[in-house]
Specification:
By secondary structure, this protein is α/β, with parallel strands linked by helices. The protein has 2 domains: about 140 residues, NAD(P)-binding Rossmann-like Domain (Rossmann fold); about 120 residues, Dihydrodipicolinate Reductase, domain 2. The model has no long low-confidence stretch (mean pLDDT about 95).
């Protein structure tokens, strides 16, 4: 598939464009960014076009990969879907329920395929583990901890305005939910409380009767940084395989392959409809948190 990339930041430079330029079945055609100088520089690195507008790029590609903040991604994704482009989206799909639903509606109306890039879901060992525990059944609880030391460092996301404004709930919360929901199913009750700094804790009740808890932060002390996920129930206690040090480029390759399969008629579980479900839960949590 011929791809265009929306975005010129760290994730676009180091993951999206690199993965699509080196993928076996992907053809990077060009990029568009809000900063024309950065777009020109990134395009030159891959010897592709820097498009003058999103519409110009959407008219010439089969699929669009997004690497921009969610409030920028959502309206552009609607525009891309309306132009007939398949969607490789970042999480969260949007920051409001109605906006996320508009992306899903545009994809359905225009018959385009979609995949949301929840990084761990495209790590083969994690995907296989999820398939196995879902087949086992009998799980009635899950616990997820994602404590990242991002905001107080000199890393690539330290100056991200949307992450400072919306915090760990919206940035790492989607990753946690992408593992919980396949095992325990839809959520019918959300309770949330704030802790020090950026930390939030959520308690979720699932329609099937199970319960899960999430501890999330982007501003954890470096000594406390950790990522854990486990399910428990009749089969016992199962912890997800360690995906620390995951190769994001390789994971993105798998996401692009999943989008190709979706185009060919086999949807991936992490499509835009699943992305909307995640946004709905986060928005309800945001209401609880105030």
């Amino acid at each position: 598939m011929r791809y265009g990339v929306v975005g010129t930041g760290f994730w676009a430079r180091e993951v999206h464009t690199h993965a699509l330029d080196t993928g076996a079945n992907t053809d990077l055609v060009g990029v568009w960014g809000r900063d024309p100088a950065k777009a020109t520089e990134l395009a030159a690195r891959h010897d592709v076009l820097a498009y003058p507008s999103p519409a110009a790029m959407f008219a010439e590609v089969d699929a669009v990969a997004f690497a921009v903040p969610p409030h920028v991604q959502a309206p552009l994704a609607v525009q891309a879907a309306s132009a007939g482009c398949h969607l490789l989206l970042e999480k969260p799909v949007a920051l409001e329920i109605d906006t996320a639903r508009a992306v899903a509606s545009a994809a359905e109306t225009n018959g385009v395929a979609s995949v949301v890039f929840f990084t761990s879901r495209f790590v083969p060992a994690v995907a296989s583990w999820l398939d196995r525990v879902r087949a086992d059944g009998g799980w009635w609880g899950a616990r997820s901890t994602v404590l990242a030391a991002v905001l107080g460092t000199d890393g690539p996301f330290a100056d991200s305005p949307w992450r400072h404004e919306h915090g760990g709930l919206w940035d790492v919360g989607p990753h946690a939910l992408s593992l919980i929901l396949p095992v325990l199913g839809p959520v019918d009750q959300v309770t949330g409380i704030r802790g020090p700094r950026d930390s939030v804790q959520l308690a979720l009740h699932h329609q099937g009767g199970g319960a899960s808890s999430l501890l999330l932060s982007l501003d954890a002390p470096p000594a406390a940084a950790r990522t854990e996920f486990a399910v428990f129930g009749e089969p016992g206690w199962e912890q997800v395989p360690d995906d620390h040090g995951v190769d994001a480029v390789e994971s993105f390759h798998h996401a692009a392959e999943a989008l190709q399969r979706a185009v060919d008629g086999t949807p991936h579980p992490c499509d835009v409809r699943f992305g909307v479900e995640v946004v709905e839960i986060l928005a309800r949590a945001q209401q609880q948190l105030g």
